[in-house]
Amino acid sequence: MFDDDLQQLEERHLLRQLRLIESPTAAAVMIDGRSVILMASNDYLGLATHPRLKQAAIAATERFGVGAGASRLVSGTLPPHRALEQALAAFKGTEAALLFGSGYLANIGLIPSLIGSGGTILADRLCHASLIDGGRLSGADFHRYRHRDLDHLAALLSKHATGRKTLIVTDGVFSMDGDLAPLPALLGLADRYDAMVLVDDAHGTGVMGAEGRGTLEHFGLESRLPFHMGTLSKALGGSGAYVAGPDTLIRYLVNRARSFIYTTAPPPATAAAAQEALAVLRAEPERRARLWRNRAQWHAGLRALGFRTTDTQSPIIPVLIGDPQQALTMAERLLQQGVYAPAIRPPTVPPETSRIRTTVTAEHTVEQLDHALAAFKTVGAELGLL
């Protein structure tokens, strides 16, 4: 029944397969029984294996069990959930916050709650799939503007937004390109057309800004946007997501966001670990400093070798290849050299932009990054990319 579709994907070099990681996520991991340098993790601060987070998760499990047992509105709201929401609101400087099981669940619940049929949604062409799907589920008139192209956004606003409830959605840090949304100018356009703005700060939280509060802090816009969403699964090392904003919005989502209402609450262990991650983020600022030093070394090294990258401003540094088969070949050759950096191909990225999406973390050593750069140099030369 599915063989033909799978065969077609394989012929186009777009077939995906799961790769087993046989050890905890870290700067180096075990694959097929050998240690390789991992250049593909979103665990930017290395908190997934931090002793304080593990102990918090263990303590919560021992006290409350491995699962919440029900949805939040039935009997699934436990002390770790409430404590995390309070900690997130304090960290983000908002009145309240609401915990979701994942970023995908947050976006497909939040967007249809904000806007519905009769409204207009304008989304950056490269924003995350969950934002796109949330927009389509809303029933609103849905359009996509060219990536970070404010002239195109302004043209769409002038054509579609007048007199209609309008929502602009964008990533703060784009997950595949590593660049930032032009938020100051984007908010200026939103004000001109009386549009709401939703920023997905999954890859900004814990990374961007002087205190790691995210892309809004980076641009000095925290007081300009009343709400936003982000995840707990990248720099904070765990799983889940949040919406932070006014208390009235949070109470509204409790009653309207279907992906919150009709799903079992996240395990108490993940909530406790996320709360501890916020504490570690404040207590160990050197982690962010190491992350940005490593990012500078890696980015400069790739550019010096002659690889083509995006206009990245984050620890996400893609090496652009173009052809999916060549991207797959490069990923396999890198793995042979002891570096795991998988190929990213359509539909995750646009056609003809297949790439090796690399990421650095605070846990990488100078020696590991040097070894990885040497592997990229060897493989890049073999494939005629340099």
Q: Judging from the principal axes of the Cα atoms, what is the shape?
A: globular
Would you tell me which CATH topology of the largest domain applies?
A: Aspartate Aminotransferase, domain 2
Lateral strand order in the biggest sheet: 5-4-6-7
Tell me the helix content.
40-55%
| Mean pLDDT figure | 97
The CA-CA distance between the termini, in Å, is: 43 Å
How many separate structural domains? 2
Describe the structure.
By secondary structure, the protein is an alpha/beta fold. It has two domains: 13-42 and 285-382, Alpha-Beta Complex (Aspartate Aminotransferase, domain 1), CATH 3.90.1150; 51-283, Type I PLP-dependent aspartate aminotransferase-like (Major domain) (Aspartate Aminotransferase, domain 2). The protein contains 15 helices and 13 strands. The chain has helices at residues 3-11, 51-64, 72-76, 79-92, 103-114, 129-138, 150-160, 183-192, 215-219, 247-256, 258-261, 268-283, 286-305, 324-336, 366-382, and strands at 28-31, 34-38, 96-100, 120-124, 141-145, 166-171, 196-200, 228-231, 241-245, 316-322, 339-340, 343-344, 354-359. α8 (183-192) links the parallel β6 and β7 (196-200). It is globular.
Can I get a quick summary?
With 386 residues, the protein is an alpha/beta fold. The protein has helices spanning 3-11, 51-64, 72-76, 79-92, 103-114, 129-138, 150-160, 183-192, 215-219, 247-256, 258-261, 268-283, 286-305, 324-336, 366-382; strands spanning 28-31, 34-38, 96-100, 120-124, 141-145, 166-171, 196-200, 228-231, 241-245, 316-322, 339-340, 343-344, 354-359.
